[in-house]
Amino acid sequence: MSHAAKSTDSFALSRVVTHPLWLAALAILIANDHLLKGAGILPGVVTGKLSDVTGMLVAPVILASLLRVHSRRGLALAHLAVAVGFTAMELVDAAVVITDRALQLIGLHWVATRDLSDLLVLLLLPACHTWASALAARRPVSVGAEASPQTGIVARAVIAVGLVAGIASTETGPGVSCQGDCDQDGVPTEQDCNDYDANVSSDAGNCPGDPTNEDCEDGSDNDGDGATDCDDDDCLFACADTVTACSLETTIDPANDTIVVGSTLGGSWALEGECGGADAPEVIYRVLSSDGVVRFEVPDGHALHARRQCDDTFSALACSVDESVELDLKSGDFTLIVEALDALEASDFELVLTFIPTGCGDGALAETEECDDGNNVADDGCAPSCKIELPEPPGD
Q: Considering the domain boundaries, does residue 206 fall inside one?
């Protein structure tokens, strides 16, 4: 087969990304996400669906271009990947959390606005694939047209613009300005009891209590529904990282444990104490209650902070970066967080703890004590836990 024949049979996505229809879809998507959403010009439901429709045409081709697809089958797999990802974002909480964490790594914040009716847009995907596939495989008007370097440059530039514009449009969510309507439901933030869920608003008539936006980090029941912060269903996505991290906490039994070995390398990044001074990885423990107090020594390069409940910032009990932390165990279980002072300090650590039973150190030998010398000082023959200290074996 001649070179010219090969050229006429080539599969080129550059034909798709430079086609007027695809360029128009990209332009509408960019204008919609960056200018119309939250501006009050169109209802939020319209701007939301407009993004979904144009995205079905634009997203698979961008993905296929990034993966350097050169066949109908590859383009079909790119469309399938978009369908699976889109469905997961609508139905699977973990997908939302993973996407949020991935964007946080590049400094972006993101919020998911879910509406099961969005899944109907997937019916357009087969038609989008058929059109793009036929156009990419179509023979060029003149032999050798595919080799034009100008066409390749324009195509790559268009893909870059689409990718950057698409990522930038996700920069929204708690702590980031949403231009007055975060969920694009047409209701301004100050009038919306949940500005991160387009299905809940004062206009929809399903706001519990006072129609004000629930703040998920202020320790108050803003919307009057009896739930605060992460306990409020309105904070499902805002608290997703915290809920996931807290579900991984492991148990410390002070009455039996003396050294706990752990590592903040690869830890969660969801919780932050009043001390430490940086958002950094942490390891979370649930400390069991007992009849006494417990003293924790702060590991090097880390901070310790304790709170009554893992997902409740406003139940803080203590926080320290250098001095030991001593807490009463008779008041119930509590959460202890070992947090690296910053990301570079994350490392393996040993958490040394001392359990002091009630009455230990009063000079009176109780039934549960091996000794009681009237203090809680170590290295004097009677440990702070009122256990007999054995002498160190002589060195060689």
A: no
Q: What is the pLDDT of residues 374-383, one digit of tens each?
A: 887 778 888 8
SS (H, E, C) the chain: CCHHHHHHCCCCCHHHHCCHHHHHHHHHHHHHHHHHCCCCCCCHHHHHHHHHHHHHHHHHHHHHHHCCCCCHHHHHHHHHHHHHHHHHHHHCHHHHHHHHHHHHCCCCCCCCCCCHHHHHHHHHHHHHHHHHHHHHHCCCCCCCHHHCHHHHHHHHHHHHHHHHHHHHCCCCCCCCCCCCCCCCCCCCHHHCCCCCCCCCCCCCCCCCCCCCCCCCCCCCCCCCCCCCHHHCHHHCCCCHHHHHHHCCCEEECCCCCCEEEEECCCCECCCCCCCCCCCCCEEEEEECCCCEEEEECCCCCEEEEEECCCCCHHHEEEEECCCCEEEECCCCCEEEEEEECCHHHCCEEEEEEEEEECCCCCCCCCCCCCCCCCCCCCCCCECCCCCECCCCCCCC
- Tens digits of residue pLDDT in 235-282: 777 788 888 889 989 999 998 899 999 999 988 888 888 787 667 889
Residues 53 and 155 in one domain: yes
Domain boundary among 168, 188, 222: 168
